[in-house]
Amino acid sequence: AVGGAGAPSAAAPDHHQVKESRMIQVIPTPVSVTPDRDGGEFRLTPATVIETDRGARQVGEYLAGVLRPATGYRLPVGGDSPRDGNTISLKLGRVADEIGDQGYELRADRRGVDLRARTSAGLFAGVQTLRQLLPAEIESREQRRGPWTVPAGRIVDHPRFEYRSAMLDVSRHFFSPDEVKSYIDQIALYKINRLHLHLADDQGWRIQIDSWPNLTTHGGSTEVGGGPGGFYTKDEFRDLIAYAAQRHIEIVPEIDMPGHTNAALSSYAELNCDGVAPPLYTGIEVGFSSLCIDKEITYRFVEDVLTELAELTPGEYLHIGGDEAHATSDPDYIKFFQRVLPIAEGLGKKVTGWHEFLKATPSTSALPQYWGTTDANELVRDAAARGNKILLSPANKTYLDMKYDENTPLGLSWAGYIEVDEAYGWNPGDYLDGVPESAVLGVEAPLWAETLETSDHIEFMAFPRLPAVAELAWSPWSTHDWESFRTRLAAQAPRWEQAGINFYRSPQIDWP
Ligand code: TNX
């Protein structure tokens, strides 16, 4: 087996090697890739069938949905495989132990493609790989000519970290359900399995809460720059959760507190210590708002909100914010979270929060999210020593809202400029002092939206850095190789073009 990170052969690119190279261009790079030495390929035709067993049916339908627009083929999904092959087979069952719950094994030969995994999440990951084994035109939403070939060979693959996340800030600027769905489709391509939604901040409250209706009618009515804002009704949010779940992505909803709460404070005067509601806020300063720590109503508010949010959320986690509470004293901050943490845990969810919430010493089941810019943090080191798992999103590496360089028209730069090599060039398993790989649950790439208003903006900041962070989260460190990555990244560009995904043409990459 050649390591997935191997660069394409330097020898003359005969037909055979061109096919081979597609197999070693996958992002995130698989654990092991073995192109078939005898060459050969599978060719998708109008007669190809997607064969699934019962538990694989939904992934089969998803795959058919991905392949139908560009091929124009019928691609029936079901149980009966034609005897003459020409089948993409998705099967749940026994696989090698190392493949685990999220991995898969893929074999392709002249007769078809055979994808196996222990779970549908593993099959889904394998389907994302299969997409990249097909020509870039497969990503087109309009019919293309083909030929639709998959190089013959074998891939065995499984993730380095189980929690691979992207965050979207829908508070600073509101993004419609369709815009969020479009980002979900894009992150799914790179085997991201969590979407953290930052649902409330100073500038806007974006999720319907029946017991506190002004949160959305008033608190959701604007955004940075004074635009109309918006919010998700509970039905819209359930639909988003279901859409994400079909793509094996779990939504992690965040309500930020006790800071970043101006939208709530503006919606309910009684939440303010002085009983006076501040005006809505449309600027981009941080750290000026706080819930009133000594008022009982604060905790009724938090409990109501988290209860409704937990009812809405089938996923494992609730995110309770906790960052940049500059308007809350340390003792107040601790007092606040010592009351809020049991409320959140009492709802049957695991609690995640920005790493400052470690000041209140949450239980070891809590998941602190590190967002600092240094490679040492005492709170996080001590939590890891106590047994907490850590989610890593160092701002100077993974913040997709940071500018690429001084000329980037969008984004901020407080954590520095982040070019592609910077986003790719760190090891999550050996990054934070006192946080060994075994203490790392995963990696997240947050996208704050002070400067972002459209899907085009989201894509410009996320591509190509999101695939870089996704590879750090999925691929074994032994495959880490900048030269290989930049070659493979270049090969993604035609796919993004076919799919209509905007991206930043980093000068570090030799784009085709
Ligand atoms: C810091 S990082 C924030 C956000 C801002 C972001 C902008 C963190 C936990 N809080 O409130 O949107 O910087 O980059």
From TrEMBL:
GO annotation terms (biological process): carbohydrate metabolic process; glycosaminoglycan metabolic process
GO terms for cellular component: membrane
Occurrences of domain Beta-hexosaminidase bacterial type N-terminal (ranges): 24-158
A Pfam family annotated for this UniProt entry: Glyco_hydro_20b
Residue positions of the active site: E324
Family: Belongs to the glycosyl hydrolase 20 family.
GO molecular function: beta-N-acetylhexosaminidase activity
Reaction(s) catalysed by this chain's protein: Hydrolysis of terminal non-reducing N-acetyl-D-hexosamine residues in N-acetyl-beta-D-hexosaminides
Residue intervals of the Glycoside hydrolase family 20 catalytic domain: 161-327, 335-476
Stored CDD domains: GH20_SpHex_like
Keywords from the UniProt entry: Glycosidase, Hydrolase, Signal
Listed PANTHER family: BETA-HEXOSAMINIDASE, BETA-N-ACETYLHEXOSAMINIDASE
Entry protein name: beta-N-acetylhexosaminidase
Enzyme Commission numbers on file: 3.2.1.52
